[in-house]
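Why do we bother with a discrete structure alphabet at all? Because it lets us treat a fold like text: something you can write down, compare, and reason about line by line. To make this less abstract, here is a complete entry for Porin. Read it the way you would read a sentence in a foreign language you are learning: slowly, and without expecting to understand everything at once.
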Amino acid sequence: MKPLLIFALAVGASVPAFAQIDPVLLRRPEQDSGGARLNMDAVYSRPFSQFGKLPVALGGYVEANYQYVGQDGVSDRHQFQFRRLTLFVSSSISKRIRFLSEIEFEDGAKEISVEFASVDFEFNPLFNLRGGIVLNPIGAFNQNHDGPKWEFVDRPLSATRMLPATFSNVGFGVYGKKYAGDWVYGYEAYLTNGFNERIVDNTEGRTYLPATKEDPDRFEENFSGSMLFTGKTALRHRKVGELGVSYMSGAYNKFEVDGLKIDRKRTVSVWAVDFNSTLRSGTALTGEWAWVKVDLPADYTEQFGRKQQGGFLDIVQPVWKRSMFGFDNAVLNAALRIEYVDWNRGRFGASGSMISDHLFSLVPALSWRPSAQTVLRFNYRYQWQRDLFGNPPSRLAAFQFGFSSYF
């Protein structure tokens, strides 16, 4: 409970990099106020360009960086990385029907994926239908993951190495929002394809939810044959911030073949809480914490975790706002990310001692925004990770410099 207590105290004491972004957006009139936007609006809260009378709008972002990483005295020295190029295509098919897609090229196009491709049918602000490839709304980062919105080169470890970051599936669902004065309420609920057995049969040698994204057939067939449910509710006060609670649950094993039951249905469940706000001083905070529970067969060894937890807290403080180097309204930020991942909560059955498969990281940062849509980032990452048995930690230190920009 210590990591969770530290996280809770940090949330109570501090505050989102999201406040930096103010692009030209595709949104409904009731979304025009920046204070009314929720994380669920992130797929449309992006800059798009319309060309004449073309029926589509285009946009995207790019990320590249340099890093020097050392771990336990060993280093690969100087490394340049082209992290990703993401393209957005949006179209208003009719007054109440919209299409949006997000295609990502990662690591110099070594990986190409369709992260989002859905059609929205807008019946009422409180009730809308969405179908296609949808982002499962677990936590906040999974939907609000665009690089230019963040002051850090790396994505949060809890979102990439415990939860499957930018996790999307084929399915259908409903969403809606309700406005009442300074308050905004939103919800989403989807039924989609789900997880597969790669979460326990992978090269990591642990329970590892991100491995489910390695299945090349997951957009064509549902491995378990059972639907995955993902739901989220969020409440925002225009002057205080947003609080979101989300839940995801579904089977990950093939428990029935040709009508014959071969195993009992084994599920994975995730709860997540996220919060973001901005203080009067301009200090911004973005936080997220998630709990994972996996039903494993009794004969699995204790190296596979049945329970996991982790999260992150970003604190961003603008220190200088003025015209710089010919860029009007440029901003220099100081930032800090605190993150923790525990892949295996529990005790060894034989000895009763705690299982120690966990990681802790601190990332101080400086970022410069010549405009709201572009950020240059300098990060120093220091992290230590203990193995299953709690041996002295492996230590990693990294210097990172890079940029991310919408276009």
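What the structure line is telling us, in plain words: The longest strand covers residues 74-94. Confidence is low (pLDDT under 50) at residues 1-34.
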